[in-house]
Amino acid sequence: MIRITRKIEFSAAHFYHNANFSAEENRRVFGKCNNPHGHGHNYALEVTIAGEPDPTTGMVLDLNELKEVLQREVMDRLDHRHLNYEVPELAGQIPTCENVAALIWKLLAPKITAGKLDRVRLYESPDLFADCTADAPKGNGARA
Amino acid sequence: MKISLTRRYHFSASHRLHTPKLSEAENRRIYGKCSNPYGHGHNYVVEVTLAGPVDPETGMIANLAELDPFVQREVIEPFDHKFLNEEVPEFRTEVATTENLCREIFRRLKSFPAARLEKVRIEETSKNSFEMADEFEEAAR
Fold first, then answer.
1. pLDDT score for A135
2. Would you call B140 helix, strand, or coil by DSSP?
3. Is A133 close to B65, i.e. CB distance below 8 A?
4. Rounded distance, CA A88 to CA A84, Å?
5. Which residue out of A123, A131, A138 would a mutagenesis test of the B interface target, given it has the greatest number of B Cβ atoms within 10 Å?
6. Does position B137 have pLDDT exceeding 80, yes or no?
7. Distance between CA atoms of B120 and B114, rounded to whole angstroms?
8. CB of B140 less than 8 A from some CB of A
9. How does pLDDT run across B81-101, given as a tens digit for each residue?
10. What is the residue-averaged pLDDT of chain A?
11. Which of A39, A52, A68, A80 is catalytic?
């Protein structure tokens, strides 16, 4: 099996706030990420597809198709947006790196027609990233 | 789908690869320039990967406001700008290779209470990296 990874970057704003928490609790749990005016990041997204190369083309998938899927599903939705206000799929969720990565996984998984979505790695900054991967098979170090 | 969160930390330290169990010539043959008697240093990068459910109230696997001070206390303060062979007790008896460093940092961080430590990966230089994952540790018990 071969894994192929494509990387894109987008920029977006967000802040962390839970309406079920008091103002003090929001400040305590989320710190400066709770600043109501929001703040932003340059996100870097690595999308990995796994599969066998087609014997005719030598490719796991057509990278141009993947580029179009990433444009439509990720860039058009998230780039230069405010994640709290402009992304309906995140309504009711805190737009953390974990939740945004999970959203991207859910958006991309059904759109990958050649090969399988293997990993979504979303960098919020060079020192922080979230990984989404397919569920580990049983007995692979996963604990109940 | 499974989610993990990885945070990268940085520290700088010196070490020397040398074991009293071997002769000087053997040390030199096995460890090469890494065995130079005065030691040498690296800018280490430590990637700490946590796995676990995302708390729906916070959207987080673990709050960095808890993880950062924990890693600071357990790893950065005791390792940063130190000579690992002398100033980290575990390396008075073990060779301060980055494999052993991975194991030691994993041991120090696995008690993090808020999420399960899945992996520790260390970049010794931009060309060398080492990692230790939970499953390897389980198998070694």
1. 79
2. helix
3. no
4. 9
5. A131
6. no
7. 16
8. no
9. 999 999 999 999 999 999 999
10. 93
11. A80
The catalytic residue among B24, B26, B81, B135 is B81
A60/A49 Cα distance (integer angstroms): 8
Distance of CA B4 to the CA centre of its chain: 18
Which residue out of A17, A73, A97, A124 is catalytically annotated?
A124
Residue of B nearest to A93 (CA): B59
Segments of chain A scoring below 50 in pLDDT: 140-144
Using an 8 Å Cβ cutoff, are A77 and A47 in contact? no
B34 is catalytic: yes
* Mean pLDDT value across chain B: 94
pLDDT of A85 reads 97
Q: A6: phi > 0 → left, psi -120 to 50 → alpha, else beta; which? A: beta
Across the interface, whether the CB atoms of B59 and A102 are under 8 A apart is answered no
- Calculate what percentage of chain B has a pLDDT beyond 70: 95
Contact in structure between B100 and B91 (CB atoms under 8 Å): yes
> CA-CA distance, A107 to A128, in Å (whole number)?
22
B136 burial class (0-12, 13-18, 19+ CB within 10 angstroms)?
middle
